[in-house]
Amino acid sequence: MAIFGGKKETETQLPENLPVHVGFIMDGNGRWAKKRGLPRSLGHVEGGKTFKKIMQYCKDIGIPYASFYVFSTENWKRPKAEIDGILGIMREYLDEVQQHLGDGVRAVFIGDKSVYPDDIREKMIKLENDTAHHRQLTVLLACNYGGRDEIARSAREIAKLVQNGELSPEDITEQTVADHLYTADFPDVDLVIRPSGELRLSNYLIWQCAYAEYYFTNVLWPDFTPQELDKALIDYASRGRRFGGV
Q1: Active-site entry in 29, 60, 75, 179
Q2: Rounded CA gap, 228 and 205, in Å?
Q3: Residue 2: which H helix or E strand, with range?
Q4: CA 246 to CA 243: how far, in whole Å?
Q5: How confident is the model over 178-206, as pLDDT tens digits?
Q6: Can 75 be counted among the known catalytic residues?
Q7: Which of the residues 17, 27, 164, 223 is marked catalytic?
Q8: At the top level of CATH, which class does the domain 19-147+188-235 belong to?
Q9: Segment 162-175, tens digit of pLDDT
Q10: For residues 103 and 121, what is the distance between their CA atoms, to the nearest angstrom?
Q11: What does the alpha-carbon distance between residue 137 and residue 72 come to, in Å, rounded to a whole number?
Q12: Is 164 known to be catalytic?
């Protein structure tokens, strides 16, 4: 058993069998702000602070992969002012990211980057290139991402191979599909955590979460702490994962 926690009174014994890949659905920023009479954009600012804390904690306790649902393909339907605020936060984050990523953290963006303004897209690509050799923690940032869209994209790529005579339809397997997903080089999700009280996956890594364990909490994302993550990890360790077996 390992002991973690910032202060003595909050120390937690964590089990040895921590998940390899934890996925976070960062939900509740807008509601957090609304409860306090603040603009939704300030909720996203606070949510960004929580992201940094949780990312650092994952690194500290030795979780090798953490994915975060930053912006979905459906989020473009939100009010323009909110979208502009989120894009502004992304720009600020990408400008200062090297200061808080720290040594050993690799950043990878999954999703369709092409829809973002040129400056944001260029910053994303630069960050991926600058951190490509880091291996202590890999952070997958799902931006303009949707699980169904990802699978459709994989199907189109496979169809082109068949059309070009490079692949026979009979040879298409689950692994073939997985090899054409954004996450082809990374392990499937072991534990997906969704705060805010919602009990759904919301199109997040739906292929990769096929055998994930789910953990839901009423805590809104800006209030999600390392101690809340500890609770999820302890709960995860208590579950029997059989992957369809007995």
Answers
A1: 75
A2: 22
A3: strand 2-4
A4: 8
A5: 999 999 999 999 999 999 999 999 999 99
A6: yes
A7: 27
A8: alpha beta
A9: 999 999 999 999 99
A10: 23
A11: 23
A12: no
